[in-house]
Design a protein that fits this description.
The structure holds two protein chains of two kinds. In chain A, β3 and β4 form a beta hairpin. Among the domains of chain A are: 150 residues, no CATH class; 139 residues, PH-domain like (Roll), CATH 2.30.29. The two termini of chain A are 36 Å apart. Chain A is α+β, with helices and mostly antiparallel strands. By secondary structure, chain B is an alpha+beta fold. In chain B, β1 and β2 form a beta hairpin. The longest helix of chain B has 30 residues. Chain B starts with 12 loop residues before the first helix and ends in a 7-residue tail after the last helix. The chains are: A alpha+beta, B alpha+beta. The interface between A and B is medium-sized, with 38 and 27 residues.
């Protein structure tokens, strides 16, 4: 590869930047429009509106062009240099050995124009850890990526590589099962509740009025019906969201690297070196567990921050008995989980108590707003969850791996290698001491910082000797 | 594995330092309580709130100045071994943490104005992501430990 002069990105960047600018201008412009409308709708008012809006837009255009002009990059022998900034000049050196991940992304606009954006994440402080070249020709992006991966001498042909690589795909059927059972209804549901008044405004007036009417005549029933309707709507929305995010999901394996592609409208590609995986998460959601289905994600050190929940999904859905086969392909290190020691009988009471205690606060609050103890209906469910949490809790240890099983709502099994365990903590409060119980937690790195996994109330006697376990770590790894 | 404290203790001078710190906090509560009573001259507010404030400040003061420092000293322990750092602390919740040497990213020492009066320093131990502290070591110990840990940890970053 020849070392190049300073280059600019594709001029398409101007359009992208401009759209970003306009997006942030929409709200002010709408506000101006609303306020001017309140006055007499004379021609002078329109002049004010245009007088503010047009210069703003012109400025955005000029700024976007300048931004493009001043954003240059250059591949050098030892580093990629990116210069940017119209007023405040910025120059950064990205050394290939500091690069954690590179990923190619393409939204609809980019895809139409045959371009891609290249996202690079480096080890380093959070704020400056990543940057994006937003509009590049595909070949150019591949060149830079290859350079940053450190193999700029050998130009590999991607096509043949992919043919040999083992890969995992989510089929159409699995995608829909996964979407139906994704258990993200809750998130959407609370989102809808939070914005319920705004949504009410959008509904036809007579519908809303007749609902308020029935609230008076039917009371509780009307509330229940409303809740059920909102639930169904949330479920549908969550299904659509899931399908958009995980359609065409594919993991390719080549050597030590996993390439994860997913997304229907915005196709996302994420490359990940195996040794950067810090822990594996096997999750069995409430809706999935009855069908023996599970999903697998992982905690990653450095990179992965494009994921909204900082988790990288490895397997969106699979049968539990196929799990090992998939793990064998993706992360063979993590196959062969140590045996799990369940929680001692003495901790059951504490788990049940913990599921009841929140009600001491929730009931008064609830009663204050609507004078009803209806919330008590959910108490048995909560206690049942508490019992499940107790039943599923457990941990195990073998020479190189730590396994911890817990449940909040979904059952989660975390596998961590000894070499990725940053610390191990045992804690005991006065009440636990009386029953000879302890809480056990360990920490692994996970972008953007770290994650601690806690398992409460394990029996003191069952606790293995972590001293020896961690000592081996120093010797072998 | 049990929660028997590791053998190294903090410097006993720390009790005094913590008491002074506690006194500083206490004076803040006193000022806040006084502020309430002064405001009460101008704006009518129920006396009960003032009494509660006084009670809470006194109670917190007693706990922070008289009770906590001593207990804290009793329950704090640490040990730097060749392969790991072992820290145990906590009064109501006793916490024992093991940090493998190989995971340690850097160590440093720091001391605030009060601690400096007593020639005490805090040792900060950072792994990738987490941070642990051993407070109230005399300057010499802190320096020795820092050197010891950084040589034992050999501070490489292979795993990350």
């Amino acid at each position: 590869m020849t070392m190049s002069e300073y280059k600019r990105q594709h001029p398409f960047m101007i359009l992208l930047s401009l759209m970003g600018q306009l997006k942030s201008l929409i709200i002010p412009i709408v506000l101006i429009f609303i306020f001017q409308d309140q006055g007499a709708a004379g021609s002078t008012e329109n002049l004010v509106f245009l007088g503010i809006t047009i210069p703003l837009i012109v400025l955005s255009v000029v700024y976007s062009i300048f931004k493009w002009v001043f954003y240059t990059y250059r591949l050098q022998e030892d580093a990629l240099i990116v210069k940017s900034g119209v007023f405040v000049k910025k120059r950064r050196y990205i050394k290939p050995e500091r690069v954690q991940t590179t990923s190619l992304e393409a939204g609809i606009l980019l895809r139409i124009s045959g371009l891609v954006s290249l996202k690079v994440e480096t080890a380093g402080s959070k704020k400056d850890a990543e940057f994006t070249l937003v509009a590049l020709k595909k070949e150019e992006a591949e060149t830079i990526k290859a350079y940053l991966k450190g193999d700029h001498v050998v130009e590999k042909s991607e096509e043949t590589e992919n043919e040999e690589a083992p890969y995992i795909e989510i089929g159409l059927k699995n995608l829909f099962i996964a979407a139906l059972t994704s258990g993200r209804v809750g998130v959407v549901f609370f989102f809808l509740l939070a914005f319920s008044f705004e949504i009410m405004d959008l509904l036809p007036e007579n519908l809303v009025n007749s609902y308020y009417g029935s609230l008076i005549t039917e009371g509780m029933l009307a509330i229940l019906v409303a809740v059920v309707i909102v639930l169904i709507v949330s479920w549908v929305i969550s299904i659509v969201r899931y399908v958009l995010r995980f359609a065409l999901f594919k993991v390719e394996v080549s050597g030590d690297e996993l390439t994860i592609t997913r997304g229907l409208l915005v196709k996302r590609t994420f490359r990940l070196k195996r040794h950067r995986i810090q822990a594996i998460n096997i999750t069995e959601g409430l809706l999935r567990q009855p069908f023996d289905l599970a999903s697998v994600s992982c905690e990653v050190a450095g990179g992965g921050s494009y994921e909204p929940d900082f988790k990288v999904t490895l397997i969106p859905l699979c049968k539990k008995n196929e799990l090992n086969r998939y793990l064998e392909k993706l992360v063979p290190e993590y196959v062969g989980t140590p045996e799990v020691t369940p929680l001692p009988g003495a901790s059951l009471r504490r788990y049940i108590l913990r599921s009841i205690i929140p009600y001491l606060f929730v009931i008064p609050v609830f009663f204050f707003f609507i004078e009803s103890l209806l919330i008590l209906v959910t108490l048995p469910v909560s206690i049942y969850l508490g019992i499940l949490r107790y039943k599923d809790g457990g941990f195990g240890l073998d020479d190189t791996m730590l396994v911890q099983r817990t449940r909040l709502i979904a059952k989660r099994t975390v596998l961590a290698k000894r070499r990725t365990t940053q610390d191990v903590t045992l804690s005991q409060n006065i009440l636990q001491k009386r029953k000879d119980l302890m809480s056990f937690s360990f920490t692994v790195m996970s972008t953007p910082s770290h994650k601690t996994f806690i398992l409460k109330d394990i029996g003191s006697k069952a606790i293995p000797d972590f001293h020896t376990w961690l000592q081996k770590s120093t010797q072998n790894d | 594995m049990t929660l028997t404290p590791p053998k190294e203790r903090l410097n006993p001078k720390a009790i005094k330092a913590w008491r002074i710190k506690g006194t500083l906090y206490f004076s803040v509560y006193v000022i806040l309580t006084a502020a309430f009573f002064i405001t009460r001259i101008f704006i009518s507010m129920p006396l009960e709130i003032g009494l509660i404030l006084t009670g809470v400040s006194l109670l917190l003061g007693i706990i922070q100045i008289l009770v906590v420092p001593k207990l804290r000293m009793i329950y704090w322990g640490y040990e730097i071994k060749d392969n790991e750092i072992d820290i145990q602390h906590g009064i109501i919740v006793v916490k024992r943490t093991l940090i493998p040497m190989a995971r340690i990213q850097h160590v440093d020492t720091e001391h605030g104005p009060i601690m400096r009066q007593f020639e005490l320093a805090t040792l900060n131990i950072a792994t990738a992501g987490t941070e642990h502290k051993i407070p109230a070591l005399d300057f010499d110990t802190a320096r020795t430990l820092r050197k010891k840990i950084s040589s034992l940890a050999a501070l490489s970053d292979d795993d990350v």
